[in-house]
Design brief:
The protein is mostly helical. It has seven helices and no strands. The termini are far apart.
Length: 166
């Protein structure tokens, strides 16, 4: 397997180190040392000038990430209930996601097409991208990922856009 890094058991000092590495790989979809924001798929989202189309693309991207991360996020939440270090790690993941959603909200606001405040947009995006909503709707309620992926609440953003597409 050329190009893949192999990690031995001794690479991970403890369970949290392993969980953190698993999280990084799950979020990115591979073991490349490339920030999510720098990945071509996400750059294409930011480059979309039409806000409703951009948010649909973001929803599709987030659904892809949720497929890889939702179950792991729930597992880390379970560990965090009794392990302060895991709770701290989970809080850090949440802060990173908040910062990422702030970038998306700012980019949406500068288009002049956003019908809610930048802060409201950020907070709604943040609260719907931790995997819990995706897990509930897709895994528990049987929603399809086709059309409007629920992981980013794209349907809500389309209707909050100043140019809501019907």
């Amino acid at each position: 397997m050329t190009g893949h890094k192999h990690f031995g058991v001794s690479t991970f000092k403890n369970k949290l180190t392993l969980l953190h590495r698993a999280w990084d790989v799950a979020v990115g979809g591979d073991d490349e040392d490339l920030a999510l924001i720098d990945r071509p798929e996400l750059r294409a989202v930011f480059e979309e000038p039409d806000l409703p189309a951009r948010l649909v693309k973001l929803a599709a991207f987030n659904a892809m990430v949720m497929r890889r991360t939702a179950a792991l996020h729930l597992a880390i939440q379970g560990v965090a209930a009794s392990d302060p270090a895991a709770a701290e790690m989970l809080a850090a993941f949440g802060q990173q996601r908040l910062e990422a959603m702030a970038m998306h909200a700012h980019a949406a606001a500068v288009t002049g097409q956003l019908a809610v405040s930048e802060e409201e947009c950020r907070d709604v995006m943040w609260s719907t991208t931790d995997g819990a909503l995706w897990h509930r709707l897709v895994e528990q309620r049987g929603w399809s990922e086709e059309g409007t992926p629920p992981g980013s609440a794209a349907c809500g953003f389309r209707c909050s856009s100043a140019r809501c597409p019907g």
